[in-house]
Each structure stands twice: as C-alpha cells, then as structure tokens.
Specification:
It contains 15 helices and five strands. The protein is of the alpha+beta class and about 375 residues long. The protein folds into two domains: about 90 residues, no CATH class; about 210 residues, MetI-like fold (Orthogonal Bundle). Helix 6 packs antiparallel against helix 7, helix 10 packs antiparallel against helix 13 and helix 14 runs antiparallel to helix 15.
C-alpha cells in the first residue's frame, strides 16, 4: 500500500515504533509515572513523605535487616486518600536487637551498633491490647524488616524516599513544560503572525530573558514567589518559554504566507482563528521535540535548586535534596547514599532526551 495514503501522524508513529531506544525510553517514563502516582502503595514506608526514621539505624548499607517492634497506635484511622498522600497517624516502630516475653511483660533491647551499650526497656503485654498472648504479640508486632537500598542519614528508608521523590521530578517536568508551552506559544504566535513592533517587542523580551543565566533567573523568581513546592514549578516554567517562543515564531513566519492561510483570510476568518486553528496545528512537530528536551532541563534545574536549598522543602523528599543531604558521604565510604538518587535522575533525564531524539527523527518528513 502506498505510504502517501497514510496521514503524517501515522507515518511518524510508525517511524517512532521502529526506534528501539525511543520506545524503551517511552516505556521507562510511563512506568516511572505509574510509580509516582501510586508511590505510597508501592513504597515500604507508608508515612507521609516517607519520613519515618530512627537514628539508631542511620546510614545503613543496602540489604540491611533488623528486628522491628511495632507498638499499636492509639488512633490509626485510615482513609482512601492515604494511598495517594501517605498516612499521618501510624504505629510507632522500634528497631531492636533481641527480646524476651514473659507471662505479663515484654523486655527488649533497643538496636545499637555496639550491643554492650543497648538500652533495655520493659512494657506490659496489656499495651498490645487486652487478653493479648505472647504468641500473638510475636506474630503480629515483631517482624524482620529489610531496607533494600539501606537507610539515609536520618535512619529513613532510602527506597521509599526515592519512590516518593520521583513525584517531584515528574511533576516539575509536566507543570514547567505546560507553563512554558502556554506562554511560549502565545508570544511566539503573535510575534510571528503580526510582525513589526509586536515582533520587535517580543524578541526584545526573549533576548533579555535569554541573556540571564537560567539558574540565576530561577533563583530570582523563586525568591520573589517564596520557597515552596509549587513556587519552584512556576519559576522553572517561566524561564523555559523563550526557546518555545522562538521556534513557534519561526514556524508561524514560514506558514503565514501559505495558501491555506490566504484562503482563510479570504473567507473572513478572524486572526485568532487563523493562528490557533490553522497555523499552530501545522507547526507543532518541533514544539513537541523541544518539550521533551525541556522536561529533562526542568528536572535538572529543580534538582539544582533543591541542592541549593531553594527547591522542595523538607520533609518533602526530592532527588536533588537527597543528593544535597548525602554528598559528603561520598568521601566517607558510603557513596550509595548520594549515588542512588543521582542514578535515578540520570536515567530519567536520559530517557527524556532519547525520546526527544526519537520524536525528532519520527517527525522529520524529509527523512521519509
């Protein structure tokens, strides 16, 4: 069957499917988005922001296992929202070395790296509920817990913090790119279509913003809006629209003299309809490619801000913040504390860049 009978979208999709690394990157990103959405379902630590920790087990290596004594919570109400935002009321957990159970009490030794300094405490069996037997307590309240990626400097589960932290990186990509597209497409479209003084003003604004180092501009906007979760998203988005505006402007300039635009004008269509219904849909291919690259840029900028203490604020976990908290451990013999979030960030940025390259090849009609 002749390929000319197929739509350009169909041809581009077929070319994209043939790109192994592009498809692999897309699948990786989809999986990571799924993990970010259901982070609290998948993470071992269900507390909000995966913030449970105990200093007695801080900075433990991957695969560390410890006995954990769980004390029943007085108020342990749960709701459907806990699956998406984490639990606020949880049972207290105590890492222990060993324990003994008598007829009416439980004696345990708190965990410590030096067993001879272990603190001994005794609690009555009635604290676990009336008529609780020693067998029920051992089965329901004492268990082995394994930290697959070890624990951080505060004794928190690294794997849980890594999973919850993926939300910040994924969200910053979507929100920042969305803001940059809205602002960039608007300014680029009116500059390219109307030309003259409008074009000169928009390009003057673009050149001014482009002349300022991105990180410095983001820091300035962040300080103006205040430190916080959503302020960072807006700040990053407001610094990424200039590249989108330049590309859209060039596309609009090349398309506004086309025959279909002349026909639309002859039919009396308004300029806004010509721009948004006729010109922009035919100029989205390079914008899609830039958006994929901007995803990667937004993730790196947010990580840099978190490393400087201007990103997502504690106790919200973010990969940049985790690197900031543990980069000193690289020279202290525990590099995995900083390498784990660093590798996760590297893979995510690499996936977006490779998917962007695949989209560029797929949307390049000249290569077909």
């Amino acid at each position: 069957m002749d390929k000319t009978n197929h739509s350009l979208t169909g041809l581009a999709l077929r070319k994209f499917k043939k790109n192994f690394w592009g498809v692999l990157s897309f699948v990786f990103i989809v999986i990571l988005v799924f993990i970010a959405i259901f982070a609290y379902v998948l993470s071992p630590d269900k507390t909000r922001n995966a913030n449970w920790g105990d200093l007695s087990i801080h900075s433990k290596s991957p695969g560390f296992t410890v006995k954990m004594l769980t004390l029943p919570a007085k108020h342990n109400d749960s709701s459907f929202s806990d699956y998406f935002v984490g639990k606020t009321s949880v049972s207290a957990k105590i890492p222990i070395l060993k324990y003994t159970v008598t007829a009416d009490s439980l004696t345990y030794y708190e965990y410590t790296d030096e067993p001879s300094f272990a603190v001994t405490k005794t609690i009555p069996l009635s604290a676990f509920g009336k008529n609780s037997t020693s067998k029920e307590i051992q089965e329901n309240y004492i268990s082995e817990q394994t930290f697959i990626l070890g624990t951080d400097s505060q004794g928190r589960d690294m794997l849980s913090r890594l999973i919850i932290g993926s939300r910040v990186s994924i969200a910053i990509g979507f929100v920042a790119v969305f803001i940059s597209l809205i602002v960039g497409i608007f300014f680029g479209a009116i500059a390219g279509y109307y030309g003259g003084k409008v074009d000169a003003f928009v390009m003057w604004l673009v050149n001014i913003i482009w002349s300022i180092p991105t990180l410095l501009l983001v820091i300035a906007i962040t300080l103006a809006l205040g430190k916080g979760f959503w302020q960072v998203f807006v700040a990053v988005g407001l610094t990424m629209w200039v590249e989108v505006a330049r590309v859209v402007r060039g596309q609009v300039i090349s398309l506004k003299q086309s025959q279909f635009v002349t026909a639309a004008r002859a039919l009396g269509y308004k300029n806004s309809r010509i721009i948004f219904n006729h010109i922009l849909p035919n100029s989205m291919a390079p914008v899609i490619v830039i958006s994929a690259a901007n995803f990667a840029s937004a993730i790196l900028v947010e990580s840099g801000l978190s490393f400087l203490g201007l990103g997502a604020q504690p106790p919200i976990p973010s990969w940049g913040g985790m690197i900031k908290d543990h980069y000193n451990y690289i020279i202290l013999g525990k590099p995995y504390l900083a390498m784990a979030p660093g590798i996760a960030m590297l893979l995510l940025v690499l996936a977006f860049m490779m998917m962007g390259n695949a989209l560029r090849d797929a949307l390049d009609v000249k290569s077909e």
